[in-house]
Amino acid sequence: MIKVGIVGGTGYTGVELLRIMAVHPDAEIVTITSRSEAGMPVTDMYPNLRGYCDGLAFTDPDDQQLADCDVVFFATPHGVAMRSVQTLLDAGTRIVDLSADFRLRDLSVWQQWYGMKHEASELAGEAIYGLPETARSRIREARLVANPGCYPTAVQLGFLPLLEERLVDPSRLIADAKSGASGGGRQGKVAMLHGEVGESFKTYGASGHRHLPEIREGLERASGGPVGVTFVPHLIPMVRGIEATLYADLKDPSQFDRLQALYEERFSDEPFVDVMPFGTHPETRSVRGGNMCRIALHRQENSSVVIVSAVIDNLVKGAAGQAVQNMNLMCGLSETAGLDIPALLP
């Protein structure tokens, strides 16, 4: 069994990692850390895990315990992993970082958006951006994987075939995305109270969101050059899920008829991308609790604008599930191990 540790296990991403790993056939959680909850049994905080994580308790971070693991997930706020992973890497432990510490190549941009100096520039250059649909072979060889953000996962997968085939104007990309409240994390915030979120709908970060530079970098890798992207996130009154409605101008409108086949072919071997029939409307409830991204294409009349709808569970394919997918690749396991489950519906 692969021995796994989790640093920062009390948030929504942490409990999703625990839920997935509880039934993973080839790996087990041996340590989970939380400075604030050290000593608390995991099942006291997460009763849904009774019978699966009995005997596992939160502990203070201990470098030796973590170094004894084969893989360690960092489910921590930004700024933590970059100060901590070198010791573990030196011990031969492989890392999947679910924070933003290693997602951006340009550290001056990272520092601008995260408001602090990056303290691990060499590791930032080594880290592999962990979107399996674009970097599977590199992930297999990686010591350190930067797990993508939730919005960037949905946006990149939706735009990917269009940019790879150079079919759209890369300077005019629009991503209109909506997320459930769990995307804001588990810590107490007045703006995230049910009385504040319920029966309301709003945009946020419209003047600039931290996921924008990550989205831009990923789309530039796909297109092979600069892109112009407008990204606007929204908060909607549900617990989990992301829907991204994407818009791009087709260079040659006569190419529209081949787009469905293009998407189906591009993702035909991807276990966690489902290209739906043309003109259908993916629902977030169809991916709730699962690691799937569902995508559908649309066109209005004879417009040259391609409309792509992509849905994911922000806590699974947008976070913990994709992290386990990356771990599976890094450890030579079946990529779908622990993840090949249907979504919850209703």
UniProtKB/TrEMBL annotation:
GO terms for molecular function: N-acetyl-gamma-glutamyl-phosphate reductase activity; NAD binding; NADP+ binding. Pathway: Amino-acid biosynthesis; L-arginine biosynthesis; N(2)-acetyl-L-ornithine from L-glutamate: step 3/4. It is found in: Cytoplasm. It comes from the Bacteria. Its EC number is 1.2.1.38. GO terms for biological process: L-arginine biosynthetic process. It is an enzyme of class 1 (oxidoreductase). It catalyses: N-acetyl-L-glutamate 5-semialdehyde + phosphate + NADP(+) = N-acetyl-L-glutamyl 5-phosphate + NADPH + H(+). One of its GO terms (cellular component) is cytoplasm. The active site is at 150. Residues 3-142 form the Semialdehyde dehydrogenase NAD-binding domain. Keywords: Amino-acid biosynthesis, Arginine biosynthesis, Cytoplasm, NADP, Oxidoreductase. PANTHER family: N-ACETYL-GAMMA-GLUTAMYL-PHOSPHATE REDUCTASE, CHLOROPLASTIC-RELATED (PTHR32338:SF10), N-ACETYL-GAMMA-GLUTAMYL-PHOSPHATE REDUCTASE, CHLOROPLASTIC-RELATED-RELATED (PTHR32338). Catalyzes the NADPH-dependent reduction of N-acetyl-5-glutamyl phosphate to yield N-acetyl-L-glutamate 5-semialdehyde. NCBIfam families: argC. Belongs to the NAGSA dehydrogenase family. Type 1 subfamily. This is N-acetyl-gamma-glutamyl-phosphate reductase. It comes from Tamilnaduibacter salinus. The lineage of its organism: Bacteria, Pseudomonadati, Pseudomonadota, Gammaproteobacteria, Pseudomonadales.
